[in-house]
Amino acid sequence: MRYISTRGEAPVLNFEQAMLTGLARDGGLYLPETIPQFSTGEIAALESLPYGEAALRIIKPFLGESFSDDELTKALDAAYADFGHVARAPLRQLAPGHHLLELFHGPTLAFKDFAMQLIGQLFQIALKRSGQRITIVGATSGDTGSAAIEAFRGLDNVDVFILFPHGRVSEVQRRQMTTPDDANVHALALDGHFDDCQARLKDLFNDHDFRDQVGLAGVNSINWARVLAQVVYYFTAAVSLGAPGRVVDFTVPTGNFGDILAGLVAKRMGLPIGQLVVATNQNDILHRALTSGEYRVGEVEPSISPSMDIQVSSNFERALFWAYDSDPAAIRQIMAELKAGGFSISQGALQALQEDFMSGRASETETLDMIRTIRDETGEILCPHSAVGVKVAREKLRDGVPMITLATAHPAKFPDAVETAIGIRPDLPPHMQGLFDKAERQTRVENDVEALKSLILERRMA
Ligand SMILES: *Cc1c(COP(=O)(O)O)cnc(C)c1O
Protein backbone atom coordinates (compact mmCIF):
# COMPACT_ATOMS: atom_id res chain seq x y z
CA MET A 1 0.00 0.00 0.00
CA ARG A 2 1.50 3.30 -1.15
CA TYR A 3 0.74 6.66 0.45
CA ILE A 4 0.81 9.84 -1.62
CA SER A 5 0.59 13.51 -0.67
CA THR A 6 -2.45 15.59 -1.65
CA ARG A 7 0.00 18.14 -3.06
CA GLY A 8 1.95 15.64 -5.13
CA GLU A 9 5.47 16.84 -4.28
CA ALA A 10 6.46 14.69 -1.29
CA PRO A 11 8.03 11.24 -1.29
CA VAL A 12 5.68 8.26 -1.63
CA LEU A 13 5.69 6.38 1.70
CA ASN A 14 4.45 3.13 3.20
CA PHE A 15 1.94 3.08 6.06
CA GLU A 16 4.51 3.06 8.85
CA GLN A 17 6.44 5.97 7.38
CA ALA A 18 3.26 7.98 6.78
CA MET A 19 2.22 7.35 10.39
CA LEU A 20 5.56 8.40 11.86
CA THR A 21 5.81 11.46 9.60
CA GLY A 22 2.35 12.99 10.02
CA LEU A 23 2.45 16.02 7.74
CA ALA A 24 3.98 15.56 4.28
CA ARG A 25 7.07 17.62 3.47
CA ASP A 26 5.27 19.55 0.75
CA GLY A 27 2.70 20.71 3.32
CA GLY A 28 0.14 18.18 2.04
CA LEU A 29 -1.62 15.26 3.72
CA TYR A 30 -0.95 11.60 3.04
CA LEU A 31 -3.64 9.38 1.49
CA PRO A 32 -3.54 5.78 0.29
CA GLU A 33 -3.12 5.68 -3.48
CA THR A 34 -6.10 3.32 -3.75
CA ILE A 35 -8.88 2.54 -1.28
CA PRO A 36 -9.37 -1.17 -0.47
CA GLN A 37 -12.85 -2.39 -1.42
CA PHE A 38 -15.10 -4.51 0.83
CA SER A 39 -17.72 -6.78 -0.73
CA THR A 40 -21.22 -6.97 0.75
CA GLY A 41 -20.28 -10.43 2.05
CA GLU A 42 -17.22 -9.08 3.86
CA ILE A 43 -19.28 -6.25 5.36
CA ALA A 44 -22.08 -8.58 6.47
CA ALA A 45 -19.50 -10.84 8.14
CA LEU A 46 -18.60 -8.02 10.55
CA GLU A 47 -21.94 -8.38 12.31
CA SER A 48 -21.63 -9.22 16.01
CA LEU A 49 -17.84 -9.44 15.91
CA PRO A 50 -16.02 -8.06 18.95
CA TYR A 51 -14.84 -4.51 18.16
CA GLY A 52 -11.16 -5.47 17.99
CA GLU A 53 -11.82 -8.24 15.46
CA ALA A 54 -13.87 -5.97 13.23
CA ALA A 55 -11.07 -3.39 13.51
CA LEU A 56 -8.48 -5.97 12.46
CA ARG A 57 -10.37 -6.77 9.24
CA ILE A 58 -11.02 -3.14 8.35
CA ILE A 59 -7.57 -1.72 9.14
CA LYS A 60 -5.39 -4.56 7.86
CA PRO A 61 -5.70 -3.93 4.08
CA PHE A 62 -4.33 -0.39 4.60
CA LEU A 63 -1.13 -1.49 6.34
CA GLY A 64 0.68 -3.36 3.56
CA GLU A 65 3.80 -4.92 5.02
CA SER A 66 4.14 -2.41 7.86
CA PHE A 67 2.65 -4.53 10.66
CA SER A 68 1.93 -8.27 10.85
CA ASP A 69 -1.53 -9.58 11.77
CA ASP A 70 -0.14 -10.62 15.10
CA GLU A 71 1.26 -7.16 15.81
CA LEU A 72 -1.97 -5.46 14.79
CA THR A 73 -4.04 -7.84 16.92
CA LYS A 74 -1.90 -7.17 19.99
CA ALA A 75 -1.99 -3.42 19.36
CA LEU A 76 -5.79 -3.44 19.08
CA ASP A 77 -6.19 -5.53 22.24
CA ALA A 78 -4.00 -3.19 24.25
CA ALA A 79 -5.50 -0.03 22.71
CA TYR A 80 -9.09 -0.73 23.71
CA ALA A 81 -8.57 -2.75 26.91
CA ASP A 82 -9.20 0.24 29.18
CA PHE A 83 -12.45 1.35 27.58
CA GLY A 84 -15.36 1.49 29.99
CA HIS A 85 -17.80 -0.35 27.70
CA VAL A 86 -17.38 -3.84 26.30
CA ALA A 87 -18.87 -2.81 22.93
CA ARG A 88 -16.25 0.02 22.77
CA ALA A 89 -18.56 2.12 20.53
CA PRO A 90 -22.13 1.28 21.64
CA LEU A 91 -25.27 2.58 19.92
CA ARG A 92 -28.15 4.04 21.89
CA GLN A 93 -31.52 4.87 20.41
CA LEU A 94 -32.72 8.49 20.75
CA ALA A 95 -35.96 8.28 18.76
CA PRO A 96 -37.48 6.12 16.04
CA GLY A 97 -34.87 6.07 13.28
CA HIS A 98 -32.30 8.15 15.23
CA HIS A 99 -29.37 6.59 17.08
CA LEU A 100 -26.46 7.93 19.08
CA LEU A 101 -23.03 6.35 18.60
CA GLU A 102 -21.30 6.75 21.97
CA LEU A 103 -17.61 7.36 21.33
CA PHE A 104 -16.75 8.56 24.83
CA HIS A 105 -16.02 5.38 26.75
CA GLY A 106 -12.25 5.65 26.34
CA PRO A 107 -9.83 6.76 29.07
CA THR A 108 -10.12 10.51 28.36
CA LEU A 109 -13.83 10.52 27.53
CA ALA A 110 -13.68 11.77 23.93
CA PHE A 111 -13.64 9.97 20.56
CA LYS A 112 -9.97 10.91 20.11
CA ASP A 113 -9.09 7.93 22.32
CA PHE A 114 -10.10 5.51 19.52
CA ALA A 115 -7.30 6.74 17.27
CA MET A 116 -4.75 7.89 19.82
CA GLN A 117 -4.78 4.67 21.85
CA LEU A 118 -4.15 2.64 18.71
CA ILE A 119 -1.37 4.79 17.30
CA GLY A 120 0.31 4.79 20.73
CA GLN A 121 0.61 1.01 20.40
CA LEU A 122 1.67 1.11 16.74
CA PHE A 123 4.34 3.76 17.42
CA GLN A 124 5.66 1.57 20.23
CA ILE A 125 6.01 -1.47 17.95
CA ALA A 126 7.66 0.53 15.16
CA LEU A 127 10.13 2.23 17.50
CA LYS A 128 11.08 -1.00 19.23
CA ARG A 129 11.92 -2.49 15.84
CA SER A 130 14.06 0.44 14.74
CA GLY A 131 15.56 1.29 18.13
CA GLN A 132 14.73 4.92 17.38
CA ARG A 133 13.72 7.43 20.08
CA ILE A 134 11.23 10.14 19.29
CA THR A 135 9.81 13.25 20.86
CA ILE A 136 6.13 13.88 20.36
CA VAL A 137 5.09 17.48 20.68
CA GLY A 138 1.45 18.42 20.38
CA ALA A 139 -0.65 21.54 20.80
CA THR A 140 -4.12 21.21 22.25
CA SER A 141 -7.21 23.14 23.15
CA GLY A 142 -8.04 20.25 25.48
CA ASP A 143 -9.10 16.86 24.12
CA THR A 144 -6.19 15.95 21.85
CA GLY A 145 -3.60 16.62 24.54
CA SER A 146 -5.18 14.41 27.17
CA ALA A 147 -5.78 11.62 24.63
CA ALA A 148 -2.13 11.78 23.49
CA ILE A 149 -0.78 11.74 27.05
CA GLU A 150 -2.99 8.81 27.96
CA ALA A 151 -1.86 6.90 24.85
CA PHE A 152 1.89 7.54 25.12
CA ARG A 153 2.40 7.66 28.89
CA GLY A 154 4.92 5.14 30.15
CA LEU A 155 5.91 3.93 26.66
CA ASP A 156 9.59 3.27 26.00
CA ASN A 157 11.38 5.36 23.38
CA VAL A 158 8.88 8.21 23.48
CA ASP A 159 8.74 11.54 25.28
CA VAL A 160 5.48 13.41 24.99
CA PHE A 161 5.27 17.18 25.43
CA ILE A 162 1.83 18.79 25.27
CA LEU A 163 1.39 22.54 24.95
CA PHE A 164 -1.88 23.89 26.24
CA PRO A 165 -2.93 27.51 26.74
CA HIS A 166 -2.46 28.41 30.41
CA GLY A 167 -5.78 29.10 32.12
CA ARG A 168 -7.82 28.38 29.00
CA VAL A 169 -8.74 24.70 29.26
CA SER A 170 -11.46 23.23 31.48
CA GLU A 171 -10.42 21.86 34.88
CA VAL A 172 -11.22 18.28 33.84
CA GLN A 173 -9.15 18.70 30.67
CA ARG A 174 -6.23 20.22 32.59
CA ARG A 175 -6.23 17.54 35.27
CA GLN A 176 -6.29 14.80 32.64
CA MET A 177 -3.02 16.26 31.33
CA THR A 178 -1.32 17.14 34.61
CA THR A 179 -2.10 14.15 36.84
CA PRO A 180 -0.38 11.26 34.96
CA ASP A 181 2.88 10.79 36.88
CA ASP A 182 4.91 8.95 34.21
CA ALA A 183 8.40 10.35 33.71
CA ASN A 184 7.97 10.64 29.92
CA VAL A 185 4.93 12.93 30.17
CA HIS A 186 5.42 16.69 30.13
CA ALA A 187 2.39 19.00 30.34
CA LEU A 188 3.41 22.52 29.40
CA ALA A 189 1.14 25.46 30.24
CA LEU A 190 2.04 28.11 27.71
CA ASP A 191 1.46 31.79 28.38
CA GLY A 192 -0.82 32.48 25.45
CA HIS A 193 -3.81 31.28 23.43
CA PHE A 194 -4.31 28.00 21.60
CA ASP A 195 -3.18 29.75 18.39
CA ASP A 196 0.14 30.58 20.11
CA CYS A 197 0.55 26.91 21.06
CA GLN A 198 0.00 25.91 17.43
CA ALA A 199 2.34 28.60 16.14
CA ARG A 200 5.17 27.52 18.50
CA LEU A 201 4.61 23.91 17.47
CA LYS A 202 5.06 24.90 13.83
CA ASP A 203 8.23 26.82 14.77
CA LEU A 204 9.64 23.65 16.32
CA PHE A 205 8.85 21.55 13.25
CA ASN A 206 10.32 24.20 10.94
CA ASP A 207 13.66 24.15 12.75
CA HIS A 208 15.08 21.15 10.89
CA ASP A 209 18.21 20.80 13.04
CA PHE A 210 16.15 20.67 16.20
CA ARG A 211 13.62 18.40 14.51
CA ASP A 212 16.33 15.85 13.65
CA GLN A 213 18.15 16.24 16.95
CA VAL A 214 15.16 15.18 19.06
CA GLY A 215 13.30 13.05 16.47
CA LEU A 216 10.22 15.24 16.47
CA ALA A 217 6.96 13.48 15.60
CA GLY A 218 3.40 14.80 15.25
CA VAL A 219 0.17 13.08 16.24
CA ASN A 220 -2.40 15.74 15.41
CA SER A 221 -5.53 14.87 13.50
CA ILE A 222 -3.95 15.12 10.05
CA ASN A 223 -2.03 11.91 10.81
CA TRP A 224 -3.48 9.31 8.41
CA ALA A 225 -3.25 6.54 11.01
CA ARG A 226 -5.68 8.47 13.21
CA VAL A 227 -8.23 8.81 10.42
CA LEU A 228 -7.93 5.11 9.65
CA ALA A 229 -8.61 4.04 13.24
CA GLN A 230 -11.86 6.04 13.13
CA VAL A 231 -13.15 4.25 10.02
CA VAL A 232 -13.91 1.17 12.13
CA TYR A 233 -16.85 2.51 14.12
CA TYR A 234 -18.69 3.63 10.98
CA PHE A 235 -18.70 -0.02 9.91
CA THR A 236 -19.64 -1.52 13.27
CA ALA A 237 -22.48 1.00 13.78
CA ALA A 238 -23.89 0.67 10.25
CA VAL A 239 -23.75 -3.13 10.35
CA SER A 240 -25.63 -3.28 13.65
CA LEU A 241 -28.44 -1.29 12.01
CA GLY A 242 -28.76 -3.48 8.94
CA ALA A 243 -25.93 -2.59 6.54
CA PRO A 244 -24.99 -3.76 3.96
CA GLY A 245 -28.64 -4.62 3.28
CA ARG A 246 -29.66 -1.12 4.17
CA VAL A 247 -28.39 2.43 3.66
CA VAL A 248 -27.61 4.51 6.77
CA ASP A 249 -26.86 8.23 7.27
CA PHE A 250 -24.38 9.72 9.73
CA THR A 251 -24.18 13.15 11.36
CA VAL A 252 -20.80 14.20 12.75
CA PRO A 253 -19.99 17.16 15.04
CA THR A 254 -17.12 18.60 13.04
CA GLY A 255 -14.08 20.79 13.58
CA ASN A 256 -10.91 19.70 11.85
CA PHE A 257 -12.85 17.29 9.57
CA GLY A 258 -10.90 14.19 10.69
CA ASP A 259 -13.79 12.23 12.14
CA ILE A 260 -16.19 12.78 9.23
CA LEU A 261 -13.43 12.10 6.72
CA ALA A 262 -13.19 8.62 8.23
CA GLY A 263 -16.87 8.26 7.28
CA LEU A 264 -16.06 9.18 3.69
CA VAL A 265 -13.30 6.56 3.65
CA ALA A 266 -15.79 3.94 4.92
CA LYS A 267 -18.19 4.92 2.13
CA ARG A 268 -15.45 4.68 -0.50
CA MET A 269 -14.59 1.20 0.84
CA GLY A 270 -18.13 0.09 0.02
CA LEU A 271 -20.15 0.75 3.18
CA PRO A 272 -23.63 1.90 2.05
CA ILE A 273 -23.67 5.38 3.61
CA GLY A 274 -26.28 7.74 2.16
CA GLN A 275 -25.54 11.17 3.60
CA LEU A 276 -22.63 12.28 5.74
CA VAL A 277 -23.91 15.36 7.55
CA VAL A 278 -21.34 17.92 8.71
CA ALA A 279 -22.60 19.61 11.89
CA THR A 280 -20.84 22.82 12.92
CA ASN A 281 -21.30 25.28 15.78
CA GLN A 282 -21.29 29.05 15.18
CA ASN A 283 -17.87 28.62 13.57
CA ASP A 284 -19.60 27.45 10.43
CA ILE A 285 -17.02 27.87 7.68
CA LEU A 286 -17.56 24.27 6.50
CA HIS A 287 -21.33 24.65 6.38
CA ARG A 288 -20.94 27.83 4.32
CA ALA A 289 -18.35 26.24 2.05
CA LEU A 290 -20.48 23.16 1.37
CA THR A 291 -23.57 25.23 0.55
CA SER A 292 -22.03 28.20 -1.30
CA GLY A 293 -18.70 26.85 -2.57
CA GLU A 294 -16.89 29.76 -0.89
CA TYR A 295 -14.27 28.77 1.70
CA ARG A 296 -13.48 32.06 3.49
CA VAL A 297 -11.57 32.18 6.76
CA GLY A 298 -12.86 34.45 9.53
CA GLU A 299 -12.10 34.90 13.22
CA VAL A 300 -12.68 32.00 15.61
CA GLU A 301 -15.59 32.76 17.94
CA PRO A 302 -15.16 30.83 21.21
CA SER A 303 -18.20 28.62 21.91
CA ILE A 304 -19.51 26.11 24.45
CA SER A 305 -18.33 23.33 22.10
CA PRO A 306 -14.66 24.38 22.07
CA SER A 307 -13.27 21.32 20.29
CA MET A 308 -15.09 22.51 17.17
CA ASP A 309 -13.92 26.13 17.36
CA ILE A 310 -11.88 26.16 14.22
CA GLN A 311 -11.63 28.10 10.98
CA VAL A 312 -9.14 26.13 8.91
CA SER A 313 -10.20 22.46 8.83
CA SER A 314 -7.01 20.63 7.94
CA ASN A 315 -8.52 17.31 6.90
CA PHE A 316 -10.93 18.98 4.47
CA GLU A 317 -7.95 19.00 2.10
CA ARG A 318 -8.28 15.23 1.69
CA ALA A 319 -11.96 15.48 0.69
CA LEU A 320 -11.05 18.30 -1.70
CA PHE A 321 -8.32 16.14 -3.24
CA TRP A 322 -10.86 13.46 -4.16
CA ALA A 323 -13.45 16.05 -5.24
CA TYR A 324 -10.83 17.50 -7.62
CA ASP A 325 -10.29 14.04 -9.19
CA SER A 326 -7.05 13.49 -7.23
CA ASP A 327 -5.33 16.39 -8.99
CA PRO A 328 -2.47 17.66 -6.77
CA ALA A 329 -1.93 20.77 -8.92
CA ALA A 330 -5.49 21.91 -8.20
CA ILE A 331 -4.91 21.40 -4.46
CA ARG A 332 -1.62 23.34 -4.52
CA GLN A 333 -3.46 26.19 -6.23
CA ILE A 334 -6.38 26.44 -3.76
CA MET A 335 -4.11 25.97 -0.73
CA ALA A 336 -2.02 28.90 -1.95
CA GLU A 337 -5.23 30.94 -2.19
CA LEU A 338 -6.18 29.82 1.31
CA LYS A 339 -3.01 31.46 2.65
CA ALA A 340 -4.40 34.71 1.29
CA GLY A 341 -7.77 34.25 3.05
CA GLY A 342 -9.86 31.74 1.12
CA PHE A 343 -10.82 30.11 -2.16
CA SER A 344 -13.81 29.25 -4.37
CA ILE A 345 -14.47 25.55 -4.90
CA SER A 346 -14.93 24.75 -8.60
CA GLN A 347 -18.42 23.84 -9.80
CA GLY A 348 -17.44 20.24 -10.51
CA ALA A 349 -15.70 19.74 -7.18
CA LEU A 350 -18.59 21.30 -5.25
CA GLN A 351 -21.00 18.94 -6.97
CA ALA A 352 -18.80 15.99 -6.04
CA LEU A 353 -18.65 17.13 -2.40
CA GLN A 354 -22.42 17.61 -2.29
CA GLU A 355 -22.96 14.04 -3.44
CA ASP A 356 -21.36 12.83 -0.19
CA PHE A 357 -21.95 15.65 2.28
CA MET A 358 -24.81 17.69 3.64
CA SER A 359 -24.32 20.27 6.39
CA GLY A 360 -25.96 22.35 9.07
CA ARG A 361 -25.08 24.53 12.06
CA ALA A 362 -26.27 25.05 15.60
CA SER A 363 -26.07 28.36 17.48
CA GLU A 364 -25.17 28.49 21.18
CA THR A 365 -28.84 28.76 22.20
CA GLU A 366 -29.88 25.92 19.91
CA THR A 367 -27.14 23.74 21.40
CA LEU A 368 -28.27 24.40 24.99
CA ASP A 369 -31.91 23.85 23.95
CA MET A 370 -31.01 20.50 22.42
CA ILE A 371 -29.24 19.30 25.59
CA ARG A 372 -32.49 20.13 27.44
CA THR A 373 -34.79 18.55 24.82
CA ILE A 374 -32.90 15.27 24.69
CA ARG A 375 -32.75 15.11 28.47
CA ASP A 376 -36.56 15.57 28.55
CA GLU A 377 -37.27 13.12 25.73
CA THR A 378 -34.85 10.34 26.68
CA GLY A 379 -33.13 11.03 30.01
CA GLU A 380 -29.81 11.06 28.14
CA ILE A 381 -27.35 13.89 28.87
CA LEU A 382 -25.42 15.10 25.82
CA CYS A 383 -22.12 16.97 25.77
CA PRO A 384 -22.39 20.27 23.86
CA HIS A 385 -20.55 18.89 20.79
CA SER A 386 -22.88 15.93 20.54
CA ALA A 387 -25.85 18.30 21.01
CA VAL A 388 -24.72 20.28 17.95
CA GLY A 389 -24.77 17.00 16.03
CA VAL A 390 -28.18 15.91 17.29
CA LYS A 391 -29.72 19.30 16.48
CA VAL A 392 -28.48 19.18 12.88
CA ALA A 393 -29.30 15.46 12.49
CA ARG A 394 -32.94 16.05 13.43
CA GLU A 395 -33.24 18.45 10.49
CA LYS A 396 -31.84 15.87 8.08
CA LEU A 397 -33.75 12.71 9.11
CA ARG A 398 -35.12 10.78 6.12
CA ASP A 399 -37.97 8.28 6.14
CA GLY A 400 -36.75 4.71 6.21
CA VAL A 401 -33.04 5.61 6.55
CA PRO A 402 -31.56 5.23 10.04
CA MET A 403 -29.59 8.28 11.19
CA ILE A 404 -26.57 7.74 13.42
CA THR A 405 -25.23 10.81 15.25
CA LEU A 406 -21.74 10.58 16.67
CA ALA A 407 -21.54 11.49 20.38
CA THR A 408 -17.97 12.77 20.50
CA ALA A 409 -17.44 13.42 24.22
CA HIS A 410 -18.82 12.52 27.63
CA PRO A 411 -20.96 15.27 29.18
CA ALA A 412 -18.81 15.28 32.35
CA LYS A 413 -15.97 16.73 30.30
CA PHE A 414 -18.00 19.92 29.77
CA PRO A 415 -19.90 20.33 33.05
CA ASP A 416 -20.38 24.10 32.80
CA ALA A 417 -22.31 23.99 29.53
CA VAL A 418 -24.39 21.07 30.74
CA GLU A 419 -25.18 22.85 34.00
CA THR A 420 -26.26 25.96 32.09
CA ALA A 421 -28.63 23.83 30.02
CA ILE A 422 -30.21 21.56 32.64
CA GLY A 423 -28.93 22.66 36.04
CA ILE A 424 -27.05 19.42 36.67
CA ARG A 425 -23.31 18.80 36.77
CA PRO A 426 -22.83 15.32 35.28
CA ASP A 427 -20.72 12.81 37.26
CA LEU A 428 -17.42 11.52 35.97
CA PRO A 429 -17.54 7.78 35.17
CA PRO A 430 -16.17 5.48 37.91
CA HIS A 431 -12.68 5.01 36.42
CA MET A 432 -12.04 8.76 36.61
CA GLN A 433 -13.45 9.57 39.96
CA GLY A 434 -10.07 10.12 41.63
CA LEU A 435 -9.21 12.89 39.16
CA PHE A 436 -9.78 15.75 41.56
CA ASP A 437 -7.71 14.19 44.36
CA LYS A 438 -4.53 13.52 42.40
CA ALA A 439 -1.47 15.76 42.49
CA GLU A 440 -0.89 17.94 39.42
CA ARG A 441 2.42 18.31 37.60
CA GLN A 442 2.88 20.98 34.96
CA THR A 443 5.47 23.48 33.78
CA ARG A 444 4.68 27.10 32.91
CA VAL A 445 6.47 28.12 29.77
CA GLU A 446 6.85 31.45 27.99
CA ASN A 447 5.37 31.94 24.56
CA ASP A 448 8.84 31.69 23.04
CA VAL A 449 10.29 28.98 20.83
CA GLU A 450 13.83 29.17 22.24
CA ALA A 451 12.53 28.71 25.80
CA LEU A 452 10.57 25.71 24.59
CA LYS A 453 13.54 24.15 22.84
CA SER A 454 15.76 24.35 25.91
CA LEU A 455 13.00 22.90 28.06
CA ILE A 456 12.50 19.95 25.70
CA LEU A 457 16.25 19.28 25.46
CA GLU A 458 16.58 19.40 29.23
CA ARG A 459 13.55 17.24 30.03
CA ARG A 460 13.54 14.49 27.48
CA MET A 461 14.94 11.15 28.53
CA ALA A 462 17.56 10.88 25.79
C1 LIG B 1 -11.98 16.89 18.22
C2 LIG B 1 -13.43 16.94 18.58
C3 LIG B 1 -14.44 17.21 17.62
C4 LIG B 1 -14.12 17.56 16.18
O1 LIG B 1 -13.60 16.47 15.47
P1 LIG B 1 -12.80 16.70 14.10
O2 LIG B 1 -12.24 15.38 13.74
O3 LIG B 1 -11.73 17.72 14.42
O4 LIG B 1 -13.78 17.22 13.11
C5 LIG B 1 -15.76 17.18 18.03
N1 LIG B 1 -16.10 16.92 19.31
C6 LIG B 1 -15.17 16.65 20.26
C7 LIG B 1 -15.61 16.40 21.66
C8 LIG B 1 -13.81 16.65 19.93
O5 LIG B 1 -12.88 16.40 20.89
Automatic annotation (TrEMBL):
Q: What EC number(s) are associated with this protein in UniProt?
A: 4.2.3.1
Where is the Threonine synthase N-terminal domain positioned along the sequence? 2-80
- Cofactor(s) recorded in Swiss-Prot or TrEMBL: pyridoxal 5'-phosphate
For molecular function, the Gene Ontology terms on record are:
threonine synthase activity
Q: Positions modified as N6-(pyridoxal phosphate)lysine?
A: 112
Q: Which GO biological-process labels does this protein carry?
A: threonine biosynthetic process
Is Signal among this UniProt entry's keywords? no
Keywords in alphabetical order, please: Lyase, Pyridoxal phosphate
Question: Entry's InterPro entries?
Answer: Thr_synth_N (IPR029144), Thr_synth_N_sf (IPR037158), Thr_synthase-like (IPR004450), Threonine_Synthase (IPR051166), TrpB-like_PALP_sf (IPR036052)
The family line of this record is:
Belongs to the threonine synthase family.
NCBIfam families per UniProt: thrC
Its name, as the record gives it, is: Threonine synthase
